[in-house]
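U., I forgot to send this yesterday:
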Amino acid sequence: MQPYTEGFAEKSLTPHKAAVKVDGHSYEAKVGPGQGYVLDKGPEGESRYNITQVLGGKNIFYFLTPLERGRLQTLPVDVKQKLWFDAAASGVRHQGDRPVSWRHSGYTFNSACYACHVSQYKQNYDLATDTYGTTWSEPGINCESCHGPAAEHIRVCAEAPPGIVPEDLRIKRGGRDFTHEQNNATCSTRHAKSIALSTSFEPGDDFWDHYDLVTMEHPDFYPDGRDLGENYTYNTWLLSPCVKAGELDCTHCHTSSGRFRQKKNPTRPAPLVTKRGSITWKPTAGISRGAIPLVA
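Result:
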């Protein structure tokens, strides 16, 4: 996630030449110099929605605009591989059999999109007034998301003599210092379709103390349990025999930043170090991504 700027638009976007027509309205993104808004032409006249934030990266960008009562809403036109498209229509799987309005709560960043895109997020929803006072510390996934609060870490490092690494770095290291369950819980806050029960989760905490897991009956999952492209893989991950046995965590195959450890040789079985020694695992053949039970 990043703020929308003219520099971003010049580098990453192409001119929007043909308006997207939805329910009697036409939407056209104006992303040239001095612009940065979506123009809405409808029966009631014209409206402008300023683009303030950008979600996405490699292949797709979604744009956010501030609406009434503190809502950040996904705009109706977005970009996939530099082609503009109808964002709400592409999300039909999330809201039933028919597309809903881009103003629907399913496209409200404050309650639907935040977990994967910002760090130290506070929703600050007020039920009495139906308003959001949402805040976050940084866009993207920052160090504290995996290592916990950094104030003490910064202090001891700043006070250490030049060239000396403090013996106690005052930080949660994760990885080998965590149990498999703790590592999985830390990653799952971004990879589980869930309902937040608190805003106080820190790395090392129990996932179930802070979140309620949405099950596979939800329309964001295929009938066989695979997620529909939103990276909600925690459900099927929990079905792995190795995970159930407490012998496997996410960082066995991935770095903490998500890179695949076996990228150069993805078909080679990887050693799995457990409390009982070293075993080898491989994915069960013929099963699609997201529905991969692992066998030792």
